[in-house]
Amino acid sequence: MQNLEGTGAGRSVSTQTDSMTGQIPRLSKVNLFTLLSLWMELFPAVEGQRQKSQEKEEGRHGHLGDNEEMIRVSTDKKQVKKTGLVVVRDMKIVDLHCSSEELHAGKIALIKHGSRLKNCDLYFSRKPCSACLKMIVNAGVNRISYWPADPEISLLSEASTSEDAKLDAKAVERLKSNSRAHVCVLLQPLVCCMMQFVEETSYKCDFIQKMAKTFPDTNIDFYSKCRQERIKEYEMLFFISNEELHKQMLMTIGLENLCENPYFSNLRQNMKDLILLLATVASSVPSCKHYGFYCDKTEQSIGIHNQSLPQEIARHCMVQARLLAYRTEDHKIGVGAVIWAEKKSQNCDGTGMMYFIGCGYNAFPVGSEYADFPNMDDKQKDREIRKFRYIIHAEQNALTFRCQEIKPEEKSMIFVTKCPCDECVPLIKGAGIKQIYTGDIDVGKKKADISYMRFGELEGVGKFTWQLNPAETCVLEQNEPESKENGVVRPVPPKEDMHLHKKLCLGNH
Ligand SMILES: O=c1ccn([C@H]2C[C@H](O)[C@@H](COP(=O)(O)OP(=O)(O)OP(=O)(O)O)O2)c(=O)[nH]1
């Protein structure tokens, strides 16, 4: 867990720097935590869990044959909204949770951390229900921030359940006013140029660029289409388009202060901006059946540590890393890294077997001041004033400030937005991380102060790079010659297939 004080970005760009300071815009830590909580709400449903609860429900119905019980189960499900949660201690992320079919996010955090929640700040994607709040408050948390739309016990559900939802909202208010914890809404306006910067860096990021190389002329439409779909989807989930309804809801959950203008319109604008930003970043690692994180064919084996995660989960974790990259302190490029591990059996968390180990982004040593270290790249002739000997890489920060040990018997995975450099590759392997998910645009690059030669040679760690689905590569290879790209042999899609890929299908998000 890295100290999230500092500055942020994506891949190097020149056009969107702040014209006054020449610096790239940066995501505030509060907005980062809020965005991550929304993103955790979207954690892909765990298949086993879905099946289990389906079986349970079928069993329950078959056994009881009780109509009332059936209605109660289905209305409960509709009424309780899936919720994401980020646990922060001393401005560092210590855990990421998402509610499961059986447990709300707040209860999961309580089970996992118990009294260690004392003095933590919790960021919820919805206002938590009274059952969660009473336990969290009791554990001594410092602050609870929530996204100001429909709460966990939905106020938008059917009339039959709205009485309960209103009662719960009242109980939450009472708990709030009698508790030491500060229960509040934390949303900050984006800094100048942030949105354009995120758009540009998302579009130019390694993942989209790699697809553009494989499918010339298709990426722009594909990226924009994906982004439009995500915006619509996230607005449905996280925004209340009807202003009156939104006002009523804010009144019910004790936010009457925010119902007057200009506060109300400012709040809605900040919410919209953050939703747009999340949709943009999510579109930079598009959900697409032709592309994903795959092992090169020569490295495929049946060992457990070489088994890839489901693509939608890998993609989800990479978007987390992309969000973290917007906190970088490098003036040119943001890199984000997040480490997850898989337990042998399922957690109570909505993340299934996955649990969070740590995260980081590239930044100067903790506590350093703005002008303490040089910021120049290798275009600067004087090597003494280049940044490379000072900046801590995203992977290094994720490893240094991790909040869990990396267990040798478990499958641990690092998701990095940029291919790990020669300094980081041995660290990742030495730490016992079993899999790397990344892009390979930089593989084979050699510069004076930073190089990317070791990743290609790395053995004993599963390497999953963003590439065309190998199953499709086989089809392409049957007819066509190969080309060399970054020193790696890549198939050139035949014209017919390229035509087909122009209609890239969006997978289910
Ligand atoms: O595994 C890595 C590799 C690099 N970085 C960070 C460190 C540094 O802040 C930046 C260096 O990026 P790059 O190699 O692209 O150098 P540049 O000078 O920023 O850009 P250019 O590609 O133009 O040389 O990326 C990481 O966090 N992890």
From TrEMBL:
It catalyses: 2'-deoxycytidine + H2O + H(+) = 2'-deoxyuridine + NH4(+); cytidine + H2O + H(+) = uridine + NH4(+). Pfam families: dCMP_cyt_deam_1. The keyword Zinc applies. Its EC number is 3.5.4.5. Its cofactor is Zn(2+). Keywords: Hydrolase, Metal-binding, Repeat, Zinc. Residues 65-163, 312-452 form the CMP/dCMP-type deaminase domain. Transmembrane segments: none annotated. Residues 1-20, 49-68 are annotated as: Disordered. It is an enzyme of class 3 (hydrolase). Belongs to the cytidine and deoxycytidylate deaminase family. PANTHER family: CYTIDINE AND DCMP DEAMINASE DOMAIN-CONTAINING PROTEIN 1 (PTHR11086:SF14), DEOXYCYTIDYLATE DEAMINASE-RELATED (PTHR11086). This is Cytidine and dCMP deaminase domain-containing protein 1. It comes from Pipistrellus nathusii (Nathusius' pipistrelle). The lineage of its organism: Eukaryota, Metazoa, Chordata, Craniata, Vertebrata.
